[in-house]
Amino acid sequence: MGTNLVKFSRDTARDVKVVARGWRWGRRPQVPRSAEPYVLPKESTVFPTKWARTPAAIALREVLQKGALNSVLRFEVNPQISGLDSLRKLNGPALIVANHSSHLDTPLVLCTLPDAMRRKTAVAAAADYFFDTWWRATASAIVFNTFPIERRGGKLSSTPGDLLADGWNVVVFPEGTRSPDGWMERFRMGAAYLAVEHGVPVIPVGIKGSFAAMPRGRGWPVPGRPTVAVRYGDPLYPAEGESAREFAPKISAAVSALLDEEATTWWEARRRVATGASPSQSGPDAARWRRVWESTAPIQSAASKHRAWK
Known about the structure:
The protein is of the alpha/beta class. The chain is built from 13 helices and seven strands. It has helices spanning 2-22, 55-76, 105-112, 115-118, 127-130, 134-144, 159-165, 190-198, 210-213, 244-263, 266-275, 288-295, 302-309, and strands at 78-82, 95-98, 121-126, 146-149, 169-172, 202-208, 227-232. Helix 2 (55-76) crosses helix 3 (105-112). The longest helix is centred in the N-terminal third of the chain and has 22 residues, at 55-76. The model has no long low-confidence stretch (mean pLDDT 86). One of its GO terms (molecular function) is acyltransferase activity. It holds the Pfam family Acyltransferase. It comes from Kribbella orskensis.
């Protein structure tokens, strides 16, 4: 009896495994893709966001950003802001370009800009992430004034150029996605193209510590109110006749210099820029745990950096 029961259990387990291997889990088609008839791909629809820049939406966003968003952000992290005097050199719309390693980066930029500039700032956001569902698209558009852009080989949206022409500042993260380990990834050409095409300056922004405060995979900042540094740089203007390909490395170098300045001092960073010896912000050639470990080093205060330099 016992032997038969064991044999029956083994046979049953084998049958369950066979059925599981052939079961249609989720929505995967049973017919191989190579055997399916060709169907023209559906044209993707763009989520409209013009309504988010109407007077009523702007008024609501002012309450949300200045009140709830700013309060929650400063309760969860300790922002250190520097370089805001560079923004006084602007006399029109600009592209605000920053490195990107956390979902904290957008609220950090918006909540550290001067109020008048923040009210006229829109944010480029990945269409396949922030605009994949109506509720996420609506929430991000009303709170952050986002608009969708394609980041996977799609056509460049005309919205950024339209916004710049209408006097709006546009926040762009040229890496296209968040850094997986906190170090700066290669900048794409979109920001440089917009600056050259529309004749607007670029404000470089170096953000340090946001990966340690809220890395990929977390839906909320880590406990302990970690320090995050946001450093603004002087406006960069494309030279007469300069192409986007020539201008793009200057944007990346400016953000790298700001991150170097945040890690050391203004004088040391400027001296390295002058001699072409600025360190790469792509991180060490090491195992991922080592890269993450180095990118999550605590932010030094200005006073401690000054004492260390002396």
